Structures are given as structure tokens and as C-alpha cells.
């Protein structure tokens, strides 16, 4: 007499994984399992995919699992326990999913009037922010950078080019003499040098802003003095 030996179930696999794995090991198709167990193919497929809501009912479901346990030499009790746990988990998840829209319904209670008022407030805030930024730009001094010459330059040349950049709308002067600014804000002005220390005040301002001043001190020496 041959004794019936049940296979040990893997503890880390779901019921669908166990059933598919056992059928694969037995090298049986869904049709063959259906024929051997007298279970409809669609129900075997539902069990192997974990779609328990597609099964006919609890009494039939338990019978299906017992038949499959028998044909695969598995423990009926263990398979039924895994099935019950997974089914309860699915039901819990579905209940939570049904409750989620109730929480989202809070948004549906916001009336068009409230939305309209909120948009108006946001628009007003945006306008004030823009106006504040514009006022700041109007009254703040422009940027001013001198690229050449360097401060405290010593030279023997009779002139020097003052090169720099400011904002295109700025008014630029060098020692109170207006300087033309290019459309991109760049400027290049040649100035004469006298012997000794020459101080140049480069000043930039916008129509309603304060001025920003940069002072350049350039020392012009005679050639004999420079080569000593």
C-alpha cells in the first residue's frame, strides 16, 4: 500500500503563485486540470490570478481548492488558510477604496463662489506683487560695472578708455559729462589724462532712482619717470 505524502507549501508564496507553480511542475494545461478536477477553466484561471471575486461562492470556492490540493498532493488546510487570508485582505482593500471618494467629496463642497473669490484674491496679490517689484526697480539704482581700466592704474598714455556696462535705461555720466550707452547697456568712453593723478567719477542713475557712483583714480607719469 502506497502512503499519500503531502508536499510542503512554500511560506513566501501566494495561492495563485502556488497553484500556477504546481500546474507548471505537473506539466498540465488549464484544460487538463479542468478535466481532472471537473472545475470550469474560468474558475481555475481566476484562482491562479487571485481574482476571488470572479468565483461562484464560498462553498464552491472551498471545494475547488480542496480538489486542486488533492491533485497537487498539497495540504487542503494550508491552502484554505492562505485563500482565506488573501480574500480577507482583498475585501479590506476594497472597503478602503470605497471610503476614499468620501474624503475627496470635501473638495466637491467648494462652491464656484468661493473659487471665484479665491481667484480674485490671488489676482489682486499678483498685481500688488508686480507693482511692488516695478516700484522697487524704478527707485533702486541701476547696476554699474567697470571692466577697464582697473582702479589705481598707472600709465604713460595721454588718454584711457573707460569700458563698462549698466542698465540700458540708465543715465550715465563721467565727471558730469553724459556718456552714450549701447542698447545692451555697454559703454566705451575715451577720456584725456593730465600728468599726475586723474580722478574720474562714473555715475549711473535711472529717471527716479538714486545714483550709483564709482571713482577711478588713474596716475599718468612721464615716460622718463616710468622707466626709472
Topology (SSEs and partners):
Layout: H1 15-25, H2 30-37, H3 41-49, H4 58-71, H5 76-108, H6 112-139, E1 144-148, E2 153-155, E3 159-166, E4 171-174, E5 177-179, E6 186-192, E7 196-205, E8 212-220, H7 223-226
Parallel strand pairs: 2-8
Antiparallel strand pairs: 1-3, 3-6, 4-5, 4-7, 7-8
Helix pairs in contact: 4-5
CATH C-level class of the largest domain is: Mainly Alpha
SS class: alpha+beta
Molecular shape: elongated
Helical percentage? 40-55%
Per CATH, what is the topology of the largest domain?
A: 434 Repressor (Amino-terminal Domain)
Please tell me the CATH architecture of the largest domain by its name: Orthogonal Bundle
Mean pLDDT: 85
- Number of helical elements: 7
**What composes the largest sheet?**
5 strands, mixed
Please give the domain count: 3
Tally the beta strands.
8
Head-to-tail CA distance between termini = 123 Å
Rg over C-alpha atoms, rounded to the nearest angstrom? 44 Å
Which parts are unreliable, with pLDDT below 50 for 5 consecutive residues or more?
none
CATH homology superfamily name of the largest domain: lambda repressor-like DNA-binding domains
Strand order of the largest sheet: 2-8-7-4-5
Instruction: Summarize the helix and strand pattern as letters.
Output: HHHHHHEEEEEEEEH
Beta-sheet strand percentage?
15-25%
Provide a brief overview of the structure:
By secondary structure, the chain is α+β, with helices and mostly antiparallel strands. The chain has helices at residues 15-25, 30-37, 41-49, 58-71, 76-108, 112-139, 223-226, and strands at 144-148, 153-155, 159-166, 171-174, 177-179, 186-192, 196-205, 212-220. The chain has a five-stranded mixed sheet, with no helix packed on it.
